[in-house]
Amino acid sequence: MNDLFNTIKASQKYLESNNNKPLIQQFSGVYSDETQFFNELYDLVNSSNVTLLEDSLNKSIDTSKFQNLEQIFQIIQENENLSSNRILAFMQGLDLIVDSALIKSYSTWLVELLDSRENKAKIDEHFRRIFTDCVKWSFTYLQPQIKENIASKKIQVWYKSVTPSPSQEWFMKLSKALGFQIVYFDITKKHPSNWLPLVELSNENEPMPFPKQKTEIISTVAREASTKFKQLMNQSDASGQSQSLFFSPFEFKEAQLLTIPLKTTYDEIRIIGTSDAYLRIGFKASPGKITVPVLFAKVNGVLSNETDYWNQLDELHATVFRHQENLLLSKSEISRDYAQYHSYLISDHFNAKELIERSEWPYHQLATGAQISLAQAIIQAVNVLKVEVKPSEKIEVVKSQVYSTLLRLPEEFIKLFHQFDYPKGVPKLLWFDQPDVTMSKEDAMQILLLNSIGFDCLIYSPNGMNSIENHLNNFNIDVFWLDQMKDYTLSNKKTKKGFLQRFWGEG
Q1: Other C-beta atoms lying within 10 Å of the C-beta of residue 233
Q2: DSSP letters along 42-103, please?
Q3: Fewer CB within 10 Å: N-end or C-end of the chain?
Q4: End-to-end Cα distance, the chain
């Protein structure tokens, strides 16, 4: 993470080490690990000394103060050569500035704003709008902190999905003049502030609302996994007696199923990938709810010891997900799905309980709890797209396409979803890249969905070429690079043992 970004969390320490110079910075883009970025941003904004400012700011103001503001405009209009200090003195007299000690700071800002007028002798619409907005916003975002003498300790975090208006740019300048710290985030790299110092982050992101909660991520190493295993095997009850971990068969079949990404290393895939769910760090089970840590990783290349590489794939006992030509829709079929489903997908009826009762719902054979979990995952996949929307595509059309595609999951994976008892086993999906087979966006939609309902998803790409990466939007996977890049197609007979025999159907 950028060192400057870290200092934001301890702003007073930053001030002390920089001679009380306010922190003024903008960040363009996000980390390569977007989940980490938004989690850290969420922590930052929810700390005690931070105010979050987004696209729309509160302009509410008392009627008496608005009348006083109009009186200021009249005074300026009647006295063309009025100095900034005299204007501010009138503002203090009319209770628009809380502290006379601030007049010098206000004056620096006001002189610059007055100079920005095309006609220096008149109150033009540009000046009136900016001045009015900034005074109104000051009563909500600046003056309460100034009264408490904590302005220099406050950080304004601006989180923007549109280009800041001229009023907002000038309000940031006023905040800076009054001693506030300003940190501006433009995750899209398309809506920068025109004057704030810039730190460029690696990735750009689609516009999205500020997160309402953190995304839970579990990072693990082999030692942590071993420690967790020992803790689970040696739990004690309230009296201190040893208590073994026990789950009844399919105890959570009707429970709400949640998943969290499990970050690991390549060497641990063999360990974690073959372990039961309840042994994984981050596993939680309570009456009516179960949380399963799941893997989502891509392995590029093969080991120098190819025998070990193929043995590892075989040991995972994963179910191979194959490219499905029948998922590919023509333009007319995509238009048909949009016409059929669009109004439903934006209605209040698009919820899990009603979805599983609809005529197009194909998963009635599952237990009701499993149906609800699957329906909730489909709704989330539609509402928060993890697949890329190309410039030539419309979001609403892609959402209808996602919905239609997720109603056609392969039968063998639905059976696996039904058969697995999640506190124990974790089903595994494996995609094996071949030069003559291209993963489609529809394939990626279904793989992402299966990961969200408890499948470990592993993409093996011996040649290291992009496959699922070409279809991802706001979703990160672990990527591991091995010793060498090779192509494996049907002509590669010599290594067809174990996994490859099952994959290509040859004994």
Answers
A1: 11
A2: HHHHTSTTEEEE-SS------HHHHHHHHHHHHHHHH-TT--HHHHHHHHHHTTSSS-GGGH
A3: C
A4: 50
Closest CA to 318 of 247, 412, 405, 406: 412
CA distance 467 to 444: 9
Q: What is the CA radius of gyration of the chain?
A: 29
The pTM score is 0.57
Rounded distance, CA 375 to CA 403, Å?
Answer: 10
Q: Is 440 helix (H, G, I), strand (E, B) or coil?
A: coil
Rounded Cα gap, residues 141 and 108, in angstroms: 19
The encoded tokens of residue 418 equal 């039904």
**Phi/psi-derived region of residue 19, left when phi > 0, alpha when psi is between -120 and 50, beta in every other case:** left
- Exposed e or buried b per residue across 379-399, where buried means at least 16 C-beta atoms within 10 angstroms of its C-beta: bebbeebbbbeeeeeeeeebb
pLDDT value of position 223: 45
Q: How far apart are CA 262 and CA 359, in angstroms?
A: 36
Distances (CA, A) of 48 to 183, 210, 314, 413: 15, 18, 51, 47
Confidence of residue 482 (pLDDT cuts 50, 70, 90): very high
* Amino acid (1-letter code) at residue 14: Y
φ/ψ bin of 213: left (φ > 0), alpha (ψ from -120 to 50), beta (otherwise): beta
Whats the size of the chain, residue-wise? 507
DSSP 8-state assignment for residue 469: G
Q: Which two tokens stand for residue 398?
A: 């892609």
Rounded CA-CA distance 102/498 in Å is 77
Q: Which two tokens stand for residue 374?
A: 């699957």
Decide which of 121 and 288 is more confident: 288
CA angle in degrees (0–180, nearest 5) for 115-118-121: 75
Burial 285-313 (b: 16+ CB within 10 A, else e): beeeebbbbbbbbbbbbbbeebeebbebb
Burial 204-232 (b: 16+ CB within 10 A, else e): ebeeeebeeeeeebbebeeeebeebeeee
pLDDT at 501 exceeding the cut of 60: no
